[in-house]
Amino acid sequence: MQIEGRTALVTGSNRGIGRAIAQALGERGAEVLGGVREVDAQHSVDGMPNVRAVRVDLSSPEAVEASVGELGADASRIDLLVNNAGEFTGGLFDRTDVAKAYELLQVNLAAPIHLTRLLLPGMLERGRGKIVNNASIIGHAPFPGAVVYAASKTGLHGFTESLRRELEETDVTVLELITPGVDTDMMDQVQRELDEHSDTEGWDHVDPDDWALKVADAIEADDHELNPGGGERLAKLLPKALLDLGAKRGFSR
After folding, report:
1. Which parts of the chain fold into alpha helices (H)?
2. Does pTM surpass 0.85?
3. Domains (ranges, CATH) in the chain?
4. Per-residue pLDDT tens digits for 83-133
5. Of the listed 143, 149, 159, 211, which one is catalytic?
6. 102: annotated active-site residue
């Protein structure tokens, strides 16, 4: 898909990967609707070319519906939807707060499905569009200590693959981001919450701007999948027995 001249909605645009992707798309000439939970100073998208903050609250089905309603005419112009926003909770599953688990599943899995369902019909009617889902490496290599997060990303991977095949005969395409460890506030949180059970000091971190450039390239190339590099790419390809061995060596209760 040509990025220049398109209208894009990127959820979670005020920080981390989402901010980097919004900036990369804006720099390539897209009109970017920077989805943030609240349009305020705390969720600013200032300083990025062609990026305008819009309220996209993913915390409940009602909030998703209301957010798309508030977009008004902008919703009917969205050619590119980047489902990026996410939450993380880690640690031992038997100590997981159930309410937080439901919140994570809503934001990471239910909301992207819901948002796609609301915006896809317009893309199909106009005969152009792309859905980009940030599914993460953990959706392909689920590791212990992040059970609910892994469930959400594995579910998003399945949604992405199924939707891609369903849209094969249309002009709307789908891209899955198999995102590696990226140097963001969320990655800092991951390491804090897993530090008791894993040695996280040696983990590789990718620069978010570098990853965003690869995302933009993959969009323009109409790729179906953007893979991580290095050891995380290998993790996606390893058989289950080797993943089990790696988890056993790298994680303890």
Report:
1. 16-27, 61-71, 98-105, 111-126, 147-166, 185-194, 208-221, 230-237, 240-250
2. yes
3. 7-250 (3.40.50.720)
4. 999 998 888 899 999 999 999 999 999 999 999 999 999 999 999 999 999
5. 149
6. no
